Amino acid sequence: MLFISSELDAINLILASIGEAPVNSISNAESVDVDNAIRALETVSRSIQRKGWLFNTYIDMVFPPDTLSKRIRYNPSWIDIIATDGKTYVKRGDYVYNLTDKTYEFSEDLTLTIIEALAFDDLPDVFKTYITAKAAIQFQARYLGDENISQELYQEAAESYADLVQYSIDTGTNMYQITGMQSLLQRS
Question: Which of 10, 39, 85, 121 is such that its CA lies 20 to 30 A from the CA of 49?
Answer without folding.
Answer: 85
